[in-house]
Amino acid sequence: MGLGASGPQVVEGWYGQPYAKPLARTREYVDIVRQVFARDAPVAYEGAYFELPYPRGTGLGKALKSTVHPLRRDIPIMLAAEGPKNVALAAEIADGWLPLWFSPKSDAFYRAALDEGFAREGSHHQSLDTFEVVSLLPVIIADDVESCADLLRPMLALYIGGMGARGANFHYEVFARLGYEGDCARIQDLYLAGRKAEAIAAVPTALVEDVALIGPRGKVKEETTRWKETVISTALITGPSFQFEMIMELLS
Q1: C-beta of residue 235 within 8 angstroms of C-beta of residue 229
Q2: Are strands 45-46 and 51-52 parallel, antiparallel or unpaired?
Q3: CB-based burial, 97-127: b 16+ in 10 Å, e otherwise
Q4: Is the bond preceding 53 in cis, omega lying within 30 degrees of 0?
Q5: CA nearest neighbour of 128 among 87, 168, 164
Q6: In the chain, what are the domains?
Q7: How far apart are CA 115 and CA 113, in angstroms?
């Protein structure tokens, strides 16, 4: 099961819930979900953010047990996270981490965050040996690097510029940490001003190359080595469907 805290725009605007203390809320939520899977007893919980049954309603609420019988009670829980504190939380309480935009350049940064979580008392796992890191990895093969980058620029501009409010966009922060803070600021300014085509054009090719494998076969093959040396245990390959066999051959 993949879970994530999302961001304040979505949580407060779409779900109608407060976004304060997302890590503490996630911790409680995972505790509750594991009780649901285990089916040891009707689920009751008294947390700072979640209370089951709800105590201030009609008074008719009662602790219930799921009618669904999972094939196993230890269903792995993966946390989607991008900031270091959330990544550390994933290492502490979950069975895996789901990064969205990963770069080999960030490997040491994320290893440190994961190690912090593994070292906490009561950590669900103690090391990467039993912990999954499942990351998106776009792969596009063509002789012209720029044409490959052009296919990914619109999505990257959307995440950097439009997926979150100014000052509260966690995707933006991922790329700023990679050294593109000035570019990110320009992309965001353009995107939020409605100048999406200009925002897309402002995404540097080097930024695309940091989070994707693009270009001629030889270049992709050579750069694959860097990715295999990272914390990633499973890469979620995306790319043109007609290139699938060639991509898998190069990455194997």
Answers
A1: no
A2: antiparallel
A3: bbbbbbbbebbeebeebbebbbeeeebbbee
A4: yes
A5: 87
A6: 2-135 (3.20.20.30), 138-225 (no CATH)
A7: 5
For the chain, strand residue ranges (E) read 2-4, 45-46, 51-52, 78-80, 96-98, 132-141, 213-215, 234-238
Close Cβ partners of 229 (under 8 Å, ≥ 6 residues apart): 104, 107
Q: Which amino acid is at 239?
A: G
Can you tell me which residue has the tokens 């779900």? 15
pLDDT digits (tens, 9 = 90+) for 52-71: 999 999 999 999 999 999 88
Q: Rounded to an integer, what distance in angstroms lies between the CA atom of residue 247 and that of residue 194?
A: 36
Give the CA angle between residues 5, 204, 224 to the nearest 5°: 75
Paired tokens of 35 = 């009780």
pLDDT in tens, 194-248: 999 999 999 999 999 999 999 999 999 999 999 999 999 999 999 998 888 988 8
- Locate 42 and state its tokens: 């009707």
| Cβ count near 27 (within 10 Å) | 16
Among 87, 86, 177, which residue's Cα sits nearest to residue 133? 87
Which position has the token pair 């999505």? 155
